[in-house]
User: Which sequence fits this backbone?
């Protein structure tokens, strides 16, 4: 028999979400999805688990190390539990919805499971909600997705939302045109190690050092980047970033924008402008997004919000008005009060003291013959 003290013990990175918090999460997801739907994003719902061959195809390959795998007893094929929902939505877009007109706007929400958490996010199971805009290669698509994700956070009451834009394809393009290997430089750039970049960058050291100096507020970063003489492919990446910043500024002039042109961690499958969402006084990221190839062939851009971080940044849940309805009260009364916004808790047995029973069941009010009375004031 299981020791009662261990019945609530869960594996590392997994947790129960209890009343009030669970309801709050559901309410937040509903508001986020309504925000996306109001701007033309149609919801899809991929399965929690699918064949490994399709789950880890294309952009999904970047999640292979985080994927739990099991053997399907029916087909005898390996299956994977999703670690990220973006590759699944991309699969739906290029297969089931291949004949739908482009650009295709899709939204999603659901749980993901990962092999291990990170230092900033130890949770291995958490919720995602996001959007994918598939079939357009325009800077306007990049800007629309980034702004919609930021606006969803602002609408939830998250303070000081900001977007950090990056170009994970810039450094590879630059080094490729200069015929240099990026293996020894990527780590130094990701850690913003200027000394190591200067020592190992070779002929590219001055340009790479200048890119490091461009990390910061968007206007300053674009000014620095604009002065650099970059090879054609790298210059095209820079110009695309500038176009996206201009469009975001026009759509959301009050949004704080920063740029990190050398950031690559977490954007392994992205193929253009990418971004991270942050909030004031919160160390972790609230979401990520950027450009990629859906199914490896179709231009797409998307954004994913990490709901555990979003819930930590947004205002907490407000307790509902709970009304204790004594046993024997007409059902029509309880229905009428629910129509007015009350949460009714019905007594299953006759109670000698309705006020005490209401207090025991965490109800702030009790229904009496004289009407509704506050439990705190007695009656």
Assistant:
């Amino acid at each position: 028999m299981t020791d009662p003290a261990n019945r609530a013990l869960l594996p590392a990175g997994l947790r129960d979400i209890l009343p009030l918090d669970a309801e709050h999460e559901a309410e937040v997801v509903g508001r986020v999805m309504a925000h996306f739907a109001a701007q033309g994003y149609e919801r899809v719902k991929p399965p929690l688990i699918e064949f490994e061959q399709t789950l880890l195809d294309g952009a999904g390959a970047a999640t292979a190390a985080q994927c739990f795998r099991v053997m399907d007893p029916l087909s005898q094929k390996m299956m994977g539990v999703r670690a990220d929902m973006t590759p699944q939505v991309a699969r739906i877009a290029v297969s089931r919805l291949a004949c739908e007109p482009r650009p295709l706007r899709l939204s999603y929400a659901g749980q993901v499971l990962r092999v291990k958490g990170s230092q900033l996010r130890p949770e291995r199971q958490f919720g995602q909600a996001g959007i994918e805009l598939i079939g357009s290669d325009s800077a306007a698509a990049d800007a629309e997705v980034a702004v919609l994700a930021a606006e969803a956070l602002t609408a939830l009451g998250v303070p000081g939302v900001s977007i950090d834009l990056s170009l994970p394809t810039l450094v590879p393009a630059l080094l490729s045109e200069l015929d240099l290997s990026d293996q020894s430089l990527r780590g130094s750039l990701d850690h913003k190690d200027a000394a190591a970049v200067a020592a190992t960058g070779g002929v590219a050291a001055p340009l790479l050092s200048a890119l490091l100096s461009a990390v910061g507020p968007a206007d300053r970063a674009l000014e620095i980047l604009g002065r650099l003489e970059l090879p054609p492919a790298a210059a095209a990446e820079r110009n695309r970033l500038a176009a996206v910043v201009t469009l975001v500024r026009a759509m959301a002039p009050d949004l704080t924008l920063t740029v990190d042109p050398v950031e690559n961690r977490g954007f392994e499958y992205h193929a253009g402008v990418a971004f991270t969402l942050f909030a004031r006084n919160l160390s972790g990221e609230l979401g990520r997004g950027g450009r990629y190839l859906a199914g490896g062939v179709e231009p797409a851009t998307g954004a994913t919000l990490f709901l555990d971080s979003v819930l930590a940044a947004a205002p907490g849940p407000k307790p509902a008005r709970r009304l204790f309805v004594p046993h024997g009260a007409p059902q029509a009364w309880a229905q009428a009060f629910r129509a007015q916004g009350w949460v009714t808790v019905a007594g299953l047995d006759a109670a000698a003291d309705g006020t005490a029973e209401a207090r025991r069941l965490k109800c702030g009010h009790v229904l009496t013959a004289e009407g509704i009375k506050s439990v705190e004031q007695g009656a």
User: Anything to note?
Assistant: The chain has three domains: 8-159+280-318, 169-262, 322-374. Residues 169-262 form one domain.
